[in-house]
Amino acid sequence: MNNIISSLFRPVDISSIVFVRIALGLLLSVKVGSYLITGYIDQIWLEPDFHFTYYGFHWVKVLPANYMYTLVTGVSVSALFIALGLFYRISTIVFFLGFSYLFLLDQAVYLNHYYLVIIVSFLIIFIPAHRYFSIDSLIWPKIKRNHISSWCLWILMFQIGLVYFYGGIAKLNLDWLQGWPMWLWIDDSIIDAHANKYLFVYVISYFGLLFDLFIVPLLLYRRTRIYAFILVIVFHMSNKVLFDIGIFPYMSIVLTTIYFSPGWPRKIFRKSLITDNLPDYKPLNPESLNKPQKLLLIMLTVFVVFQVLFPLRHILYPGNVSWTEEGHNFAWHMKLRDKNGSIKYQIRDPKTGNSWDLNPEIYLTERQRRKLATRPYLAIQFAHYIEKQFKDMGYENVEVRTRARVSLNGRKKQLIIDPNTDLTMYSDSLMPAEWILPLTKPLRPIKIEKRPDP
Fold first, then answer.
1. Helix (H, G, I), strand (E, B) or coil at 416
2. Which of 443, 448, 451, 383 is nearest to 417 (CA)?
3. How far apart are CA 206 and CA 110, in angstroms?
4. Is there a contact between 158 and 304 (Cβ–Cβ < 8 Å)?
5. Contact between residue 148 and residue 14 where contact means Cβ atoms under 8 Å apart
6. Are the C-beta atoms of residues 401 and 419 closer than 8 Å to each other?
7. Where exactly are the structural domains of the chain?
8. How does pLDDT run across 391-439, given as a tens digit for each residue?
9. 313 and 327 in contact (C-beta within 8 Å)?
10. Beta-bridge partners for 365
11. What's the CA dihedral at 204, 205, 208, 210 to 10 degrees?
């Protein structure tokens, strides 16, 4: 333990962290900046009348249009400043808070890589990646250093490794092992007419499983590192071709470079960026740590424990997590399920006995409707929204029920929410939802259609 604590503060070459700062900052600046020109701000945040909020963050609301455009511009510029190493500490905080705010506005646009951006942007607030090859180091030469403490690399390696490993563990389920998600996602048009789609799906499925489980050990072992990194590039760029997953492939490749020797950019650029003379280091023990180091050690421990345990919370819920969705988000369950469904609401006035059928599409965007139909945890929020709409029309109290039929990974559709439950009697909760019906439809064998002879 003493050796581990001592190693956390050992100085290492800063150049790999500098590379991650520049590449990641540029990627995020372009990504967020694209919101300004693609209509994303209007489509996702400004046009919808209703947004699905996160538990504990119902108070996070969309700002007026001019403020939203200003905020997104500021977040994009702050990412660019991170890349440049300009006002680095302020820029990292602005980006973290700004991007987190955008993320929390609507659960319907949840993506794992957005969550990863938040975690990494939080970490780099504390990582002094601006000490070299930055505008800050030119303005304030006293901060200039050619080294950084090892914990800066270790914490990023831990976080990236956790995403891969938990992604692999999550694939150890019958649906994935039988190839169903990939079978439904792989378009026949991308497979040669003479190819065996069944074999192709199995190869892709098991390659993804083995990749996630073993890529980190291969990256940690020096002799296999370069080959593992080539696999990383092939894997993520293949995903980019097969699926529309935004900047995640590029971001993952950039972050995975952290597993190389800390001085790899310096070696490539032939020492033009930095020297390799590191300060002498006297090993530390817990008793010799100063107060900032002790505080940092506590923060790192809390962060690691939380990141290890929080994605496992789905174990505490009954049923298939891909069906109930309880504990699915923030758990690195990536591309595990294909769900499609339909949902309609029935509103009843218990005072008069009158009832009405309501189609959610009159209130929601297409993306919100698709999520609502297959994510039961969103049904409660929308039920209360409908209740409020009817109260505004003069109804004292209404009951809101729903009929939602969903198919999971090729199964036949079935009800996912108890149609006899008045959803207005419930509120968002971390407790298991008793109104979610268990998955009863069995997984079917993949039906292989024989290709016609050419």
1. coil
2. 383
3. 26
4. yes
5. yes
6. yes
7. 2-315, 338-454
8. 999 888 899 999 999 999 999 999 999 999 999 999 989 999 999 999 9
9. yes
10. none
11. -110
